[in-house]
Amino acid sequence: MINCNNAYERIFKRFDEDGDGKLSPSELRHFLEMIGEEQLLMEEAHELMELMDSDGDGLLGLEEFVGWMEREIKLGDEERKMEVLREAFRMYVMEGSEYITLNSLKRMLSRLGESKVWKIAVL
After folding, report:
1. Nearest C-alpha neighbor of 22 from the set 68, 47, 48, 53
2. Which of 25, 73, 91 is nearest to 52 (CA)?
């Protein structure tokens, strides 16, 4: 199993261009561009840095970087879960509707071979 903190540290060191142990807004901007994010203006990089900089020094230390990466990964996981739930919901919704009706539930359960469950639920 890969130790994520070691991986984050290697990434961090790769983009710490001046080797001072901190990422500047410019280095952060370069990092985001390299991982495929939209190109940020320097002003936007400074604003993002302010959001991520927990100790207020205007730079991003390794701990702040690791914390940010872990939050981004969790956010990505949550977004994926929500997309899976949305897709499952869409399976049950009848066309032209924004909610699950009894008919759409019956139709989907029948497709899944759960007609007996439907009969019991109706009783």
Report:
1. 53
2. 25
Angle, CA 55 vertex, CA 53 and CA 56 arms, to 5°: 70
Q: Provide the pLDDT for residue 63.
A: 92
Does pLDDT of 122 surpass 70? no
- How many beta carbons lie within 10 A of that of residue 118, not counting itself? 16
Integer Cα distance of 104 and 112 in angstroms: 12
Average confidence (pLDDT) over 52-63: 92
DSSP letter at 114? -
Q: Can you tell me the distance from the alpha carbon of 73 to that of 61, in angstroms, rounded to the nearest whole number?
A: 18
Choose among 58, 68, 54: nearest CA to 12: 68
Identify the bridge partners of residue 60 per DSSP, sorted by sequence position.
Answer: 23
Structure tokens at 67: 């914390």
Q: What is the pTM of this model?
A: 0.58
